[in-house]
Known about the structure:
Elements: H1 13-26, H2 30-50, H3 71-90
Helix pairs in contact: 1-2
Amino acid sequence: MMAIVRTTVTLDPDVEKLLRTSMRERGISFKEALNEAARSGLLSGKQRAARKFVQKSFRLGDGQGFRWDKALALAEAMEDEELGRKLSLRQ
């Protein structure tokens, strides 16, 4: 036999409106609507968390001789070149 727990719950106005709409449409009590909504939300959260995450990966090619270990140095050189170009436009 399950124990019944009585508690006070403070609902946001939009949640109360959703519950009252569910009660009216389905002809159920506030208690039934609240229990079903809580049960549904809690169970669907477990199902979502149980799905395995799969990372998709894509082949980028052979790199065409690009040195990935020098990528930061290349980015810095490109940034310096762009800053120099912008400064020359100010003059």
